Amino acid sequence: MLIHAGKDRTVRIDLRLAVWLSLVAGAVNAAGFRALGYFSANMTGNVSAASDFLSLGRFATALWLLGLLIAFVLGAFASGLLIDMGERRDLRGIYAFSILLEAALLICLGGLDLIWTAAISGHLMMIGLSFVMGLQNAATTRISDGRVRTTHVSGIATDIGLGFAALMPGAGRSDDTQITRARLLLHLATLGSFFAGGLAGVWGYERIGPMIFILIAGLLIAAAAPELRKVYRHGAPR
């Protein structure tokens, strides 16, 4: 799921990617909110909240929320640079390396929260989580040609509504039905996994605290490491 890119991908590969990484995104987003009171992946909500606070004269809070947006954009920017660099150098498994980078950052952030006090680590933690979510969303968007967006729930919900509408009698040509159903399944799986990840993230944070981020990093490593083994041991395509 982290080897084939663009048109070489099948619906089944995209589905695996969406389920696995949406689960991670939902867990990070919900655990971050439970810990610090802000969402690391919900840029729509953060921008809306920033405009609200700005209109009320709460400039510091508004700037903080916009800072999370900037961190998310920088994460996507870094992911794009990393992937472009890897592709120019013909580095096989560059997308898997991107996910391993995400895992390493989550381990660092989880360790930071364990060692430092909340007063010191809180803001840096949220900036880091937003950066990580931007990194992940950009990688999944690039590898799937935009079909998989693991943190973009508003867009996914819209696509689900459009998918159901397209399946209504008389809504479209019969030869489009199979494609529409496959895309609808992908979007439903993405939304369901994000929701399940949110439940798991809060449940985990309540029980093991910041260690939940290190556990999530372990899931990312478990997803990326076998992909790299396929590439370098068996010569699988990029």
TrEMBL record:
Recorded superkingdom: Bacteria
Classification via InterPro entries: DUF1275
Keywords: Membrane, Transmembrane, Transmembrane helix
Coiled-coil ranges (or none): none
TM segment ranges: 17-39, 59-82, 94-112, 118-139, 184-205, 211-228
Keyword Lipoprotein: no
Protein's UniProt name: Transmembrane protein
Species: Thioclava dalianensis
